[in-house]
Every structure is written in structure tokens, then in C-alpha cells.
Amino acid sequence: MSGPRKTAIVTGGSQGIGAGIVKAFAERGFNVVASSRKMSQSTEVAASEHVALVDGNIGEPATAARIVETAMSRFKSIDALVNNAGIFITKPFTEYTAEDFKSLISTNVEGVLYITQLSIRQMLAQNTGGSIVTITAALARNPIRGVTAAVPMITKGGLATLTQHLAMEYAKDGIRVNAVAPGVVYTPLHRETSKEVMESLSPMGRPSTVKDITDAVMYLTEATTVTGDILYVDGGAHFGHW
């Protein structure tokens, strides 16, 4: 990467997809601020000269403020944001509790809202554009019978809509806003799920890897004229029946 080193923020960066994204940015010469509830205890990402770790609940405004303050005090800019933090709860619709819903909204919606507001504010002040990529879910567009996830998909579908509205709102400012919508992915989230079940959830019979999702995020971060896009990395699940 030529010129001054750019800075990326990655939420949910302690393991799985988030850790993969942190490493990919570092390999591309970015400074990175990585956050999660227990970021400093990560076994996949370590603090270094160009990687700062922030512990905290991303659903709280104070955590978002601390992440941005860290980016500015350590690295002096915010050029990219990846909203990766998220939780996923599956159960029959009638069994979701008020606490389930509050948890989903806190992490999946508020956890995107606060950090994205602060990051865009800083990008506007810098007047050099920027990139925001949010991890949504292919399941929000194409439900799968047997995967009972109606309530978490309220949040993921909302993020897809937010992505496209922000893309238009900030297009003239050079701030690009896109999303990656994974299908089933081999991550720690699915450590208890059998290989057969994982494969049955992909039309290709091939769940994605962390690298597949990371590559999509890197593409959108670097694609200078792509904005408002929802990039599905799901083996065709978002439009197919199988």
C-alpha cells in the first residue's frame, strides 16, 4: 500500500471471520483497531505496533467512542470500518424471549449504528472518503425451511437496507457503504454442527471458509466505484431452492 498507512476498524475481531479480516488488513499494510467483548484475550489476534485491541460491548455507545478514540490517538485516521460483530440465535419464532430480542438488537443493530455514525463523522472531517462493509446474512433474503431464524433476520435484513441508504446518502462524499452476506461458514460458531448438516445448507454442498468471506470484504474495501452492493458469498443460497 503506497502513501500514508490507512486505518481500519474491525468489530467482532477476536476469532473466526473477524480475526481473518484483521489479519488481512494488517497484511495489506493497514493499521487496525480490533474490538470485541474480550478482544485482549484473543488467541488469534495479538496487539502490535500496527494493531490495537479494544475490549467492550459494541452495543454500548461508550465502546464505540473508545474504539474511535483509540484509532485517532494511535493512528490519526479512520479509513475503513468492518461491522462484523454479531450474534445468531435460532429457535422457533414463538419461543424467542424479550431478552433474546434485546440481545439481538443491542449487538446486531446498535452495535452497527453507534460505531458507523462515529466513523462516518470522522471520514467526513478527513474529507478523503472511506469504506464501510457490514456483515449481513444470505438467510435474510432467502429463508431455509428448518433453519428457524426469523427474529435475528429482522436485524440482518435491516442492516442490508441501512447499507443501501447510507451508500446513497454519502456517495458524493466518497464514502462507500457495502455489505457481505455469507451463507453457512466454517467458523467457531458452528463447531458443534456436523459436516453433513453444514454441507446441506449450501446448494454447492460447500460451506464458505473464513478466507472466502475475508476476500469479499477486502474486495469491497478496495473497489473504488462499488457502493450500495450486497455481495452474497453463499454458494447460491440467496436465490436458489435445493
What name goes with the CATH superfamily?
Answer: NAD(P)-binding Rossmann-like Domain
How many DSSP-defined strands? 7
CATH class: Alpha Beta
**Rg (C-alpha, Å):** 17 Å
**Total domain modules:** 1
Number of contiguous helices: 6
Q: Which strand-content bin applies to the residues?
A: 15-25%
Task: Quickly give the CATH architecture.
Answer: 3-Layer(aba) Sandwich
Structural class: alpha/beta
| CATH-derived topology | Rossmann fold
Helix content: 25-40%
Low-pLDDT stretches: none
| Major beta sheet, strand line-up | 3-2-1-4-5-6-7
**For the report, how would you describe the main beta sheet?**
7 strands, parallel
N-end to C-end Cα span: 42 Å
Give the SSE map.
Layout: E1 7-11, H1 16-27, E2 31-36, E3 51-55, H2 61-75, E4 80-83, H3 98-126, E5 130-135, H4 150-169, E6 175-182, H5 195-200, H6 210-222, E7 230-233
Parallel strand pairs: 1-2, 1-4, 2-3, 4-5, 5-6, 6-7
Helix pairs in contact: 1-6, 2-3, 3-4
